[in-house]
Amino acid sequence: MLQFVTGNDEKVREVEALLDADVSQFEFDYTEIQSPQLEAIAAHGAREAYREVGEPVIVDDSGLFVDALEGFPGPYSAYVENTVGIERVWRLVEPEADHGAAFRTVVAYCDGTDEDSVRTFEGRVAGEVVAPRGDGGFGYDPIFEHDGRTFAEMDPGEKNAVSHRGRAFEKFAEWYEQP
Amino acid sequence: MLQFVTGNDEKVREVEALLDADVSQFEFDYTEIQSPQLEAIAAHGAREAYREVGEPVIVDDSGLFVDALEGFPGPYSAYVENTVGIERVWRLVEPEADHGAAFRTVVAYCDGTDEDSVRTFEGRVAGEVVAPRGDGGFGYDPIFEHDGRTFAEMDPGEKNAVSHRGRAFEKFAEWYEQP
Prior knowledge:
Chains A, B: Keywords: Hydrolase. Chains A, B: GO terms for molecular function: nucleoside triphosphate diphosphatase activity. Chains A, B: It comes from Halapricum desulfuricans. Chains A, B: Belongs to the HAM1 NTPase family. The structure is a homodimer. Chain A is an alpha+beta fold. Chain A has a single domain (about 1-175), classed as Maf protein (Alpha-Beta Complex), CATH 3.90.950. Helix content of chain A is about 35%, strand content about 25%. The first copy, chain A, contains six helices and eight strands. In chain A, strands 1, 2, 3, 4, 5, 6, 7 and 8 form an eight-stranded mixed β-sheet that branches. In chain A, a hairpin with a 6-residue loop joins strand 3 and strand 4 (about 75). The first copy, chain A, is globular, with a radius of gyration of 17 Å. The relative contact order of chain A is 0.16. Chains A and B meet through helix 3 and helix 4 of A and helix 3 and helix 4 of B.
């Protein structure tokens, strides 16, 4: 059975809805390495989780990548949210000419111990960093605008329809279910 | 022989000058984990390096911890320097009431595979984040003021006399050489 390494059971249900297969939640505190690349962090975690559970696993990692800041906060988005805070991230971007940014999720799948046992799948949604608006969502949603509204101004269904995480898992599901 | 895990041979000479023992440079690309704690990052690296070389090892990790930003950029100081840049870090701190910050270094020593085979030693220097001044040093030195001057305005000897890294290695040397 496919093991999804996450503490969030809502994510497990989302992925199950995309797949024709059963998905089991595997709560495992894998090592998150430091890297500017989500791919490297998720792949390292998937290898470690595979060694632990001995069954095919998926691990996901996400971040907000601001163009004018060379991708910051990127893989460290949660740490920066908890320290700097999203209001200050907005103030950091405000004076820049380019407010472009992308939310990205990488899903890493691992089913063995060989070098080539890991595959990664990326979902991405482009937008702009703006002054905080909206009460919904979480994390950077209030300062991320896509198609005229921030993610915090969309209801969950609208947001999921365009979301980076949904797209990454759709790509994974497409590959996983190919005959 | 004590193995110092670093790519910087100047650091090796500095530590050798503090110790009565020979120190060997061990170039090894250990895994840096994500953690808000320098101790956890250095300790994890030291365990991994010990498993690789089989001799006592030291690993050091440093960062600038800004009080008003809950310790940011902390363990991610190098990443933030390369993306956000120190000029923008100053702009982030400028509107805050409290400009206090500390440079910190943690040295981790490991000589075995047991849980208690790692010891850590911390050096810290307190100061303030200021607008960039001075041409010396590297990294955050131009925006870190201690005793009226930025680290980039001090000559190397003055800076080393108060530096967090020197203090951490002194503490380590004192413990390492005790009879």
